[in-house]
Each structure stands twice: as C-alpha cells, then as structure tokens.
Design a protein that fits this description.
- By secondary structure, the protein is of the alpha/beta class.
- It is 44% helix and 14% strand.
- The protein contains 21 helices and 18 strands.
- Helix 7 runs parallel beside helix 10.
- The longest helix has 23 residues.
- The radius of gyration is 26 Å and the shape is globular.
C-alpha cells in the first residue's frame, strides 16, 4: 500500500502515542492491509515508517524510536459487540440480529432452520397461514432446532379474530417461547393471553418472563402500548372468562407487554414508510421515559428494521442507538425463501425505485396498504382498481356491468359467482363466522370476494403459478435495490448463491468493518476508496 492509498490528513489531526511497532510485522501492500482490517478479532495499529504508512496487529512497543511510529489504532471489533449483547443472551443467538417474518411462509421452515444452525435468529412467516399449517411449522422447527434459536410471527388479524386466537393457543400449547408481534394497532386478548401464559415466580417471588415478545411497530402510540403493562380492560376480560387467574393478572401489571421493540421504518409489506432517522430516536426517547416511570428490572430494548439492505444502513442503525437490527426483503431472494424462483429472479434485479404501495389483503376494508415490487407485475395497479370499486359500490350487484366484465376477464379471470363459492370454501377453514357475516352484508361479501384475489396473489407468487406472473404480489422494501447494488459483481449477485445466514454474516461483518474504518478516519488517517469499502467475497 502506498501513500496514495492510506496517508495523513492535514497536520495536527494525527496523534502521537509515543509508541512504536516492530518493523518486521508491519504490512504495507493493499491486500495485506485489507486482510488485517477484515480480521475483526485483532487490535490494529497504523504506523508511519518515514512517510510510509502501514498496518500491524502486533503489540505496541511502549517506547518511541524502537520502530515505526504508531499514529492511530483501532481495537478488535467482533460483530457481537455491535448493539446490546443482552439481546443474544435472551434469545439464545450469537448476534444482535434477526431475520424478520415474511408472511405465508416466505420466511420458511428451511430459512429459520438454516439461520438457527448458523447462530442467527429467524422468525417463521406464520401470517396468512391457517392454524394447521402453523402447527405443522412449529413441529418441524422444534424438531430441527430443539434448543433454538427461533421466533414465530404473531400477526394481528382484525377481520379474523378466531384465527388470531387459534394461533395464540398453538404457541402456548407447544411452548413457543418467543414471538414477533406485527400489525397490532391495539393489544388484543390473544396477545395478552400469550404473554401471561409464560409468567411465573421464582423462589424469591421475582417474576420470571417465559414467553418473550418482540413487537414490530412504526408509531409511538403502538410502541407505548407494548412498553407498558397489559391494559386493565383486557386483564379483566381474561379473568372474567376464566382464562387467567388474579395472580397472573397481578404479575402482568408489573411487566411490559414486550421485551423488545423493533422500530419498523420503510419496509416491505405493512409499513408507514417512516424514515429511520426520525422514528428511531423518538422511540428510544419514549422507552427512556417509560423506563424512568416504571423502573423495570430490565428495560425494554429497541431495535431497527426496514431499509437494512447494506452494511452502511446496518451501521447507521447501530450508531443511532439500535440495540439489534432486523432484515426482511433481502432474505426473500435467498435460496431458503418460500418464494418461487421467478420471484427471486425479479428481486435480484430490482432497483431502489422499483417498489410501490398497494391495498393489503388482511386490512383491505380499512384502506391499509403494503409495499410491493412493481417490477414485472401489475398487482399494484389491479389491487388499487379493486379498492376503488369497493369504495364506490355497495355490493357486487351494484358494480356497473362493463366494469364487472373487465374484473372477471382481466383480474379474476373467473366469474364472480364462482369466486364467491371459492371464498366460502376458503373462509370455512379459517373463520366460518366471516361467511355468515358476509352473506348478511353485501358490502362485506364484496370485500371478501376482492380479498380472494389479494390473498391468492401472494400465494401465486410463492408457488410460481403459471399464467399469473403479472398478478404476483411480492412484498418488498426499497432496500432490496441497495442490497443488489452492494453485491453486484460478487457471488451473491445471483439469487441461487444467496443464503440467509451468509447475508446476515456479511451485513454484520460489513457494518463492523466500516465502523473500524471510521474510527481510523476520525484519528486523521485517510483511507482509499478500495480499502474503505466492504464487499462480500
């Protein structure tokens, strides 16, 4: 490495430690320096050898003049030192990192298993699945990872409360000790019941939390509900129903509803498109306020998700105070993902501007939207058309004939009466009560018929349904474009070479590497662009 690669900043910014380094252990070539920088387990010294700048991992000589002069240093920086080490201890993982759930099993049994065996935490995508499918996944993952680590998604289903309750009971029955709660706007009896089912007291009477909750939020008011104890109205309802005891309710009043809060910025699927630089500091401040008031023995941790598509983004989250980070969209193109090969190919080519908001299936009536990939699909346009018709019409029968014909020919590719028959069959397995409500309410019936398309579109994408490629609903955040730009020219450019654990390891290693480079820059060492960048090999 020469003076052009690493050199001094303007005089006055270089420190004089009064130390030297053994000449024979200093490297000067770019490859040697790169290898040392990437070895995060080593303390490093930058030295000046008569104007020649080099790097060494040797112990310093504590006297001047005994060798090249030490002008900067950076300590060992293992990736586990990023974030809060208590996160890993709580969930039995080696890293302050987890791969978030992607619904309909996109975050698959295979993905959670592969991550767990590599020491990373993964969340199974239980959202959108019927309880029997969730049960099957629980049994498979517990067999593959008997000692963990693993998470299961617990998604709020406002229009299918029976499904939400059934999933809660499955998690309790099979001893699932940690869930990722998502899409909650208020705390429901099912999530409170899950939390309370894991509470107990030790021999000294201290409360022991057995069922952990990581709550994914994008609003302060929702974060506050999870940082506070369970609401009294829900506790009273569970007591009166004989679901919990007075002692369990008393314990619930003394602990927060969640152990961890994932601040969700601009992510795929359900998102408020918030900027992490604004929402993360506000949630951290909220946590500190509630901790000062409640004085919990262990404060609620706060992590960051949404936009984690490059080492720079990961490092930025940690520097802003995130105690762990969460990835999502970047994992959907991995080999273990439940998405089809066609979808993985589209994701691997996506740019940052290739996403758009579209009506969601699970909260269609409320006008809630999800972020999806627009490259190679007309789903977003067609879903918006369905919501427009739903907003203007009161029933299927009131849809103008010409519009109905277009719906049947261009979107559904099937008669709407046949769609209703399929819808009855579908919801009879999930929540039979919804069918009865829809048959008594024409507007509700129209919503369920439209949700047939919205729901199946994601399943078509997962299965790779032939002939439906332009209807694929692919949940995706813009960070997939940043990830693709980062891995361009490397082995991971091709989706068949992307493995979830490798993605995790390189994102974390890259963040630590960049942090180390920044430490040297702050000490006045100029780093060449080639050395300052981190690329997965």
């Amino acid at each position: 490495m020469n003076q052009d690669a690493v050199g001094f900043s303007p005089k006055g910014r270089v420190f004089d430690f009064g130390w030297s380094a053994p000449e024979e252990q200093v490297v000067y070539d770019e490859a040697g320096v790169k290898a040392l920088l990437e070895d995060l387990s080593q303390n490093l010294l930058v030295v000046d050898n008569n104007g020649r700048i080099g790097l060494t991992s040797a112990e310093p000589i504590r006297q001047p003049g005994a060798g090249p002069k030490v002008i900067a240093m950076t300590p060992a920086l293992p990736v586990q030192s990023l974030g809060n080490p208590e996160f890993g201890k709580t969930y039995g993982t080696d890293y302050p990192y987890y791969a978030g759930a992607m619904a309909n099993g996109i975050a698959s049994v295979e993905m959670v298993t592969a991550l767990g065996k590599a020491g990373f935490l993964g969340s199974f995508g239980a959202g959108g699945l019927i309880p029997s499918a969730v049960e099957e996944a629980i049994l498979a993952i517990q067999k593959n990872l008997p000692n963990g680590p693993y998470l299961f998604n617990f998604i709020h289903s406002p229009h299918e409360p029976a499904v939400e309750q059934a999933v809660a009971e499955l998690y309790i029955k099979y001893g699932v000790k940690a869930v990722e709660a998502a899409a909650f706007m208020a705390l429901t009896p099912s999530i409170v019941q899950y939390r309370i089912a894991g509470l107990s007291r030790d021999a000294q009477g201290n409360i022991v939390i057995g069922n952990r909750i990581i709550a994914k939020v994008s609003r302060k008011e929702v974060a506050s509900r999870f940082m506070e104890p369970a609401p009294e109205r829900v506790l009273k309802k569970l007591i009166s129903g004989g679901v919990i005891t007075e002692d369990q309710a008393d314990m619930a009043r003394q602990v927060p509803m969640a152990d961890d809060i994932t601040v969700e910025a601009d992510s795929g699927g359900h998102t408020d498109n918030r900027a992490l630089v604004t929402i993360l500091p506000s949630i951290l401040s909220l946590r500190d306020e509630i901790q000062a008031k409640r004085n919990y023995p262990v404060a609620v941790r706060v992590g960051a998700g949404g936009g984690m598509g490059s080492p720079q983004a990961v490092l930025a989250a940690f520097v802003m105070g995130a105690e762990y980070i969460v990835t999502g969209s970047v994992n959907q193109a991995c080999v273990e993902s439940g998405a089809s090969d066609h979808v993985k190919g589209l994701l691997a080519k996506a740019d940052m501007a290739d996403t758009v908001m579209a009506p969601s299936a699970d909260m269609f009536e409320l006008g809630v939207k999800v972020q999806v990939l627009k490259r190679g699909s007309l789903f977003a346009v067609r879903a918006a058309k369905l919501h427009d018709i739903y907003s203007r019409c009161e029933s299927i029968e009131s849809i103008p004939p010409d519009e109905r014909e277009k719906l049947e020919n261009q979107i559904f590719k099937k008669n709407l009466d046949e769609i209703w028959a399929d819808t009855i069959d579908f919801f009879s397995q999930r929540d039979p009560g919804l069918v009865a409500k829809a048959e008594a309410d024409p507007k509700k019936k129209m919503a369920l018929i439209f949700r047939w398309y919205l729901g199946l579109s994601s399943r078509w994408a997962n299965k790779g349904e032939p002939g439906r490629e332009m209807d694929y609903q692919i949940w995706c955040g813009s960070c997939i474009g940043a990830f693709n730009a980062w891995v361009k020219g490397t082995g991971m450019e091709a989706p068949e070479n992307r493995q979830a654990a490798h993605v995790a390891r390189h994102l974390m290693n890259g963040a630590a590497y960049l942090h180390r480079v920044d430490q040297l820059k702050l000490q006045g060492v100029l780093i060449s662009p080639q050395l300052a960048a981190y690329k997965p090999d």
